[in-house]
Amino acid sequence: MTSVLPLDVLCNCLACCSLSERLRCAVASRRWQEAVLEPCLWGSLTPDPEDLLFLNVLLDRFGPSIRCLKITGHGPNRLGSSALSFPQLAKCIHLESLSLSGFRGRDLENFCQSRCQMPALRSLVIECDPYFNLGSFSHNTGAHMASLPISWLACFPNLERLVCDYLKVEASDTEAEACDAETTDSEDEVVWLDHNADLPDASRAASFGSAASADAVDAGGDGPEAEHVEGAEASLPRRTMSTLELPIGALSPHREYREHREQREPRKESQKVQSSEPEQPQLKKLRDLSFVAVVRGSGSTWHSSHCRCDLSVLAHLAPGLEHLFVRGPSVALGRMSRRPGQRIEGLIRVSRHFCSTGLRDLLAVGYLLPSLRSLKVEVAKDDTGHSWDSSGSLLTVPAASAASSRPLHASHLALLLGVHDRPFLLSVGASDVLASKLRRTGNAAASPASVSAFHSFAVAEQHLPLLQCLQKFLEQKDQKESKDLQQEFEVDIVEAA
């Protein structure tokens, strides 16, 4: 009966069968075996965890035909065990999409020990079992369980989409490791930063408050509008800014500063040999990234310099990134203890609030990633001001800005994120209070008072990308109208956290 059926009909029947059923059909007759061996049948492969025992044999036989591979492992058939290794997947020389889920313990670390080139891969998804543990007095980030080494990504030079949890920066991978050093040994390793700081991009950074005021005076002359500007600036709270020290490691991701430093103080050949380290791989074709945080060292403390959303690392890893999704870690609710009477919903709410992404880490994201078009944050919080004083937040629009000075050609929130020069979509999960702030600042136009507040915050917090973003904005000669930019900048509140 099967001998008279067309081969494509048999292949369509086998496409609905599991791998074990296909292998049983292969020994039924020669006709079925011929259908099983058809390359079109193995273009997309989704094996069950039990099929990992003989998956190596299938990859040897049908590896060149596989284009899409999705593997989920658990129990004794985990991905990091001897059942499957990365060199076995490298047999799929034409593989374009790879999805691996079910890593736990040290499985991912063991899986990334071996390396081989896969130039055809375009999409990579790495999913781990729940790993974040939040206790009453401490927490465990689970970085040792869900960290993907950045150096391992060099195996995929043409990668366009990446989904993972933690991106681990090793000491030999990137120059940004110097950001962890809080002190320096010599005075040459310190940059003095104040309102007239020497920036890498220009010989002198002008005072943003005076520049904004001069712009308003030019528009209104010596009339009452200029007097209103001076009165508005005088009404703003003034902080005495002392001279600050900025470690040179914070400037290392910027190529302009490295060139400026090399011209100012050339290093000796012996020092170059001693400090020569492999450079961090660059994924120039990566356009879509979904991740949790960047990890340095053990990464045991959440939202610290060793485990946070470090955009400077992403700027070097994927300079052409267009879509960024900052997720929260996968919380292991089964390992967390609950107070008497506490429901599981309350435990999830507390965990999401603790693991939320601070707005401070997202400042000037458009300056660090010039091609970015959309930013999605699973849960966000406003950490740019004091918890007891909401007026100190950067999301607070100055009350006198709309009436006393000419608005600038950018949205308040768009300028803060550095995306005022492009169409942009911001999707945020936030509380009701933060959602109202985001909507208000997304629709309000920036003012000289806003720019002055941004500049004061950047100097106080030693935030060099925000300073350079503000300088670039004020130096622009041809700017679009503010109403057009407000239409191109869209804020979407996707959920209430």
TrEMBL record:
The lineage of its organism: Eukaryota, Sar, Alveolata, Dinophyceae, Suessiales. Pfam families: F-box (PF00646). InterPro entries: F-box-like_dom_sf (IPR036047), F-box_dom (IPR001810), LRR_dom_sf (IPR032675). Residues 5-45 form the F-box domain. SMART domains: FBOX. Residues 253-271 have a biased composition (Basic and acidic residues). This is F-box domain-containing protein. Residues 214-282 are annotated as: Disordered. It comes from Symbiodinium natans.
